Amino acid sequence: MFTRTHNTSYELLQYKTETVSKKQKNTMAQTRKISKNNTQTCVLAVLGIKVCTLYSTAIVTLNEHGRKVILNTGGYFTATTRTRMTQCFHEWNIPLSVGFTKKDGNRVRNHETGQEYEFDNKNTCVVTY
Prior knowledge:
Strand content: 25-35%
Structural class: alpha+beta
Number of strands: 8
Order of helices and strands: HEEEEHEEEE
Strand order of the largest sheet: 1-2-3-4-8
Low-confidence stretches: 1-28
Largest sheet: 5 strands, antiparallel
Number of helices: 2
Mean pLDDT: 77
Distance between the termini: 50 Å
């Protein structure tokens, strides 16, 4: 990767230190940006639809024209599913949040209206915001 003719040992050490310190800043899961790990996004600009998939499940489908969001957990109410949904909300400026708890149930909250929605027995939730 590096050749000794162009870089001194000090420059290599400095480069490695800078790289490690940049990586250490991003050790926590980011909620402002959609993670690339096992997640894909697809934008159908003509139709105004955005889809975020985790593995092979479309967990967030956004219809920008109708301001409608379809959430689908695929039966997996996990921290990763919730994090990816939250990342989509932040990146796409959707005023929603998701909570998966045994005590309160699996809910979606609209921050603008304060209204809460529950997932149905098919593990989906449709929200108009």
